[in-house]
Design a protein that fits this description.
Order of helices and strands: HHHH
Strand content: under 5%
Number of strands: 0
Helix content: 25-40%
Length: 127
């Protein structure tokens, strides 16, 4: 077994197309809105230490590891650019959320037109 300490607490980043429609966010669904994600990245150390576990689904709350040792390990593995606050103003944060929302394809908001009337067997599709 290879000990890959560098890759600890890292995750593949999903594409941003239609990101507005993919809540909740992060690998564990920790944030319910894009605004919450932007706030998190604006000051990661504060966000990690002040995370409100009630944002998680009730079934996941007992799995949360918010003790200082885990938070310290996460912060140590962060890209150095995220260890310090970004300093975005409220207006800049709103603009960033608006930009992310602009990446949503309008046709992705209503996918009913993609539902077939029947499947290959000829059976009707239940709505």
């Amino acid at each position: 077994m290879i000990n890959n300490e560098f890759g600890r607490f890292t995750f593949r980043v999903a594409p941003l197309r239609n990101v507005e429609l993919t809540a909740p966010y992060f690998h564990d669904g920790a944030y319910p809105t894009l605004a919450a994600v932007v706030r998190h990245y604006n000051n990661v150390p504060v966000a990690l230490r002040g995370f409100d576990v009630s944002q998680l689904a009730p079934a996941l709350r007992s799995l949360y590891h918010g003790e200082e040792a885990t938070i310290g390990a996460v912060l140590a593995g962060l890209d150095s650019r995220l260890r310090q606050p970004l300093g975005l103003t409220d207006d800049e944060q709103r603009d960033l959320v608006a930009f992310l929302e602009s990446l949503t394809d309008p046709s992705a908001r209503d996918l009913r037109s993609l539902t077939p009337a029947a499947v290959p067997s000829g059976l009707p599709v239940q709505e």
